[in-house]
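TICKET: design request
STATUS: open
ATTACHED STRUCTURE:
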C-alpha cells in the first residue's frame, strides 16, 4: 500500500493514463489559488455592479476605484493566469503521459507567482495602488505593486519554459505516438503567445517600477500605453487559445467530437501567434500619438487575421461535435444531435454556452468596436466592459469552469459536490452574465462611460442628461450581475467543497449514471467511427462538408447575418453622429 502511495506515477482508473504525482500536485495548487483569486474578484464584482447601478450607487468613490483595480487584477490576471498554469501542467504531462520537467522548480515558480500576487493585493487593499489594472502614468503606485507584477510575470514565464521543456522530454521519451495532440498544440500556442506577452510585460513594468522608486523620469504615457497593450491585448489571446484548446478537449470528452481537419485547426492556432500583437492597436484608436494609417492597417487588416482564426475554430468545434454525434447515430433532422446532447453535464453546457456567447456576442461586438471609424462612438463607454465580459468571462472563464467539472474527478479524484447545483451552474453564470453584458452594451450605446463612479455628476456645476432608458439598462446590468455573482459563487462552493471535503471518486461503472460524476465519464462517447469513416463522411462528393454538418451550417448562417446587421447598424449610428445619415 505504502509503495503505491509513494510511487511517482499512478495509472488513472478512468482513462488509463500514466499520471505523475508531482505534476498532479502542481495542477492542484495552481487551480486552488486560481479559485481563491476568483472569490476575491467576484466579491469586488458584486460591490462594483451595485455601484454602477446608479439607482443603488453603493460604494464611495475611493472604494469604487480601489475595487475596480482589485477586480481587474484578481480576475483578469490572477484567476485566469493561475488557471492557465494548471492547464499547461495538465496538458504537457497528463495529456502526453509525460513526466514534468523540474517539478521542484515548478514549486519555486509557483511560490514566486504567489508572492507577487500577495504583494499586489497588499498594495491595492491598503490604498497604495489606486491605479486600476492598467496603471497608466502619471498615476503612480507604491513600488511593491510594480515589483509584485514583475515577480508574478517572471514566475509565469519560467513555468512556460518548463512547459516547453516537458514537451521536449515527452518527445524524447516517446510518451505519445504521432504528432502532438490538438489540445496540447493549442496549449502550446497559448504558451508561445505568453512568452511574447511577458516580454512586453517586462518592457512595461520595469520602467514604471524604476520610476516609482525615483530612479528614472516618468515614462512617456503614449509609449507606455502602446507597450502596455502589447501586454494587455496579447494576454487576451493567451486566454482565447487556452479556451479553444479546452473547447476541443471538452467536445471530445462530452460528446465524442471529432477533429474535422487537423491542418486547418492547427493553422488557425498559428494565425493567433502571427497577428495578435498588431491587434493591440485597437486599444489606441483615439490616442493622439499615432496616425490613422497605422491604426487602420493594424486593426482592419492584421486584426482580421486573428478574427479569422477564431471564426475557423467557431466553425470546426461545433461541426466536429455534430459530425461526431452523427457518426454515432444521432442523425435525425438538422438539430437532432443538439436535442439529444447531454445538457445536464455541466462540462457540456459550459462548452456550448462558451462557444455561443463568445462567438455571437464577444466576436461580433469585438470586430465592431475594433473598427477605427466606429471606435470613436464607443471608446471608453460601457460598451467596452460589455464586450470583454462576453469574451474573457462568458467565453474563457466559463470554459475553465466547464473543464474543472472534469478535472475534479480526473485529477483531484473527487465526486463533484452539490451535483444538482453543478448541473445548473453554467446556465446561472452564463445567463446572468448575458444580462450584464446586454445591460452594459446598451447603456454604453447611450453614452454611459466606463470606469466612472457617478454618471449623475451630482456635485458638478454642469448637468449631463442621459436618455431615461439608461436607467432600465443599468438595472438589467445590476440584476444580471447579481445572478452571475450567484453563479460564480456556486462554482467556488462546488470546487472548494469537492477538493477539500469531497467524497473520493467511487469505482465508475460504465453506462450507469452516478451522482457527482459527469456523464462523459460514466457514458464515455464511443469513438466507433475511425478516421476512414470520418473522411468518407466528410468527402462524400454528393454532400461535402456542408452535407456532413448541416446543423452547424445553419448556425453559421445565422451568425453571419447577425454580424452583418450589427456592423451595419453601427455605421448607421456613426453617420447620425456626423449628421449625414
Ligand atoms: C460575477 C461576475 C462579474 C461581474 C458581476 C463583473 C462586473 C464588473 C463591473 C460592474 C465592472 C466595472 C465596469 C466599470 O465601471 O467600468 C467590471 C470591470 C471589469 N471586469 Fe468584471 N465582472 C465579473 C467577472 C469578471 C471576470 C471573471 C473577469 C475576468 C476574467 C472580469 C474582468 C473585468 C475587467 C478586466 C474589468 C475592467 C476593470 C477596469 O476598467 O479597470 N470580470 N466587472
Ligand atoms: Cu484587445
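STATUS: resolved
RESOLUTION: sequence designed for all positions
ATTACHED SEQUENCE:
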Amino acid at each position: 500500500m505504502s509503495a503505491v502511495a509513494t510511487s511517482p506515477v499512478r495509472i488513472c482508473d478512468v482513462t488509463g493514463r500514466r499520471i505523475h504525482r508531482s505534476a498532479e500536485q502542481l495542477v492542484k495548487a495552481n487551480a486552488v489559488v486560481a479559485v481563491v483569486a476568483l472569490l476575491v474578484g467576484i466579491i469586488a464584482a458584486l460591490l462594483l455592479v451595485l455601484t454602477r447601478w446608479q439607482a443603488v450607487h453603493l460604494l464611495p468613490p475611493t472604494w469604487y476605484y480601489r475595487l475596480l483595480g482589485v477586480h481587474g487584477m484578481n480576475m483578469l490576471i490572477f484567476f485566469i493566469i493561475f488557471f492557465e498554469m494548471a492547464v499547461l501542467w495538465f496538458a504537457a504531462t497528463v495529456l502526453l503521459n509525460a513526466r514534468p520537467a523540474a517539478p521542484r522548480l515548478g514549486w519555486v515558480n509557483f511560490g514566486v507567482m504567489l508572492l507577487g500576487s500577495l504583494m499586489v493585493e497588499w498594495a491595492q487593499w491598503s490604498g497604495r495602488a489606486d491605479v486600476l489594472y492598467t496603471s497608466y502614468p502619471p498615476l503612480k503606485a507604491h513600488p511593491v505593486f510594480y515589483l509584485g507584477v514583475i515577480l508574478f510575470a517572471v514566475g509565469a514565464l519560467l513555468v512556460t519554459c518548463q512547459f516547453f521543456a516537458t514537451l521536449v522530454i515527452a518527445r524524447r521519451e516517446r510518451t505519445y505516438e504521432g504528432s502532438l495532440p490538438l489540445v496540447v498544440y493549442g496549449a502550446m500556442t497559448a504558451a508561445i503567445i505568453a512568452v511574447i506577452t511577458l516580454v512586453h510585460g517586462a518592457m512595461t513594468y520595469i520602467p514604471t517600477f524604476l520610476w516609482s522608486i525615483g530612479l528614472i523620469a516618468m515614462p512617456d504615457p503614449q509609449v507606455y500605453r502602446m507597450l502596455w497593450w502589447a501586454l494587455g491585448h496579447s494576454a487576451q489571446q493567451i486566454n482565447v487559445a487556452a479556451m479553444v484548446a479546452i473547447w476541443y478537449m471538452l467536445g471530445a470528452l462530452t460528446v465524442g467530437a471529432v477533429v474535422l481537419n487537423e491542418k486547418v485547426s492547427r493553422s488557425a492556432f498559428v494565425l493567433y501567434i502571427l497577428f495578435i500583437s498588431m491587434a493591440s492597436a485597437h486599444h489606441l484608436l483615439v490616442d493622439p500619438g499615432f496616425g490613422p494609417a497605422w491604426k487602420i492597417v493594424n486593426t482592419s487588416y492584421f486584426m482580421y487575421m486573428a478574427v479569422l482564426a477564431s471564426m475557423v475554430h467557431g466553425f470546426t468545434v461545433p461541426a466536429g461535435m455534430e459530425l461526431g454525434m452523427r457518426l454515432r447515430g444521432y442523425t435525425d433532422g438538422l438539430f437532432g444531435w443538439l436535442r439529444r446532447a447531454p445538457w445536464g453535464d455541466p462540462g457540456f453546457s459550459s462548452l456550448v454556452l462558451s462557444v455561443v456567447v463568445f462567438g455571437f456576442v464577444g466576436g461580433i461586438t469585438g470586430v465592431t468596436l475594433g473598427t477605427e471609424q466606429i471606435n470613436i462612438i464607443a471608446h471608453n463607454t460601457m460598451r467596452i466592459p460589455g464586450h470583454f465580459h462576453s469574451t474573457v468571462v462568458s467565453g474563457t472563464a466559463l470554459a475553465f469552469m466547464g473543464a474543472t467539472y472534469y478535472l475534479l474527478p480526473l485529477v483531484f479524484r473527487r465526486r463533484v459536490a452539490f451535483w444538482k447545483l453543478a448541473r445548473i451552474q453554467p446556465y446561472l453564470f452564463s445567463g446572468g452574465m448575458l444580462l450584464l453584458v446586454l445591460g452594459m452594451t446598451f447603456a454604453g450605446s447611450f453614452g454611459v462611460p466606463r470606469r466612472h463612479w457617478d454618471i449623475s455628476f451630482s456635485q458638478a456645476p454642469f448637468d449631463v442628461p442621459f436618455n431615461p432608458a439608461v436607467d432600465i439598462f443599468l438595472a438589467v446590468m445590476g440584476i444580471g450581475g447579481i445572478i452571475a455573482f450567484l453563479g460564480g459563487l456556486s462554482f467556488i462552493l462546488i470546487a472548494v467543497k469537492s477538493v477539500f471535503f469531497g467524497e473520493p471518486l467511487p469505482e465508475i461503472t460504465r453506462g450507469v449514471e452516478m451522482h457527482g460524476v459527469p456523464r462523459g465519464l460514466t457514458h464515455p462517447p464511443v469513438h466507433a467511427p475511425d478516421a476512414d469513416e470520418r473522411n468518407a463522411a466528410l468527402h462524400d462528393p454528393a454532400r461535402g462538408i456542408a452535407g456532413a454538418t448541416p446543423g452547424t451550417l445553419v448556425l453559421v448562417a445565422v451568425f453571419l447575418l447577425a454580424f452583418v446587421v450589427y456592423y451595419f447598424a453601427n455605421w448607421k449610428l456613426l453617420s447620425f453622429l456626423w449628421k449625414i445619415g
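CLOSING REMARK: The mean pLDDT is 92. Residues 403 and 506 are 20 Å apart (CA to CA).
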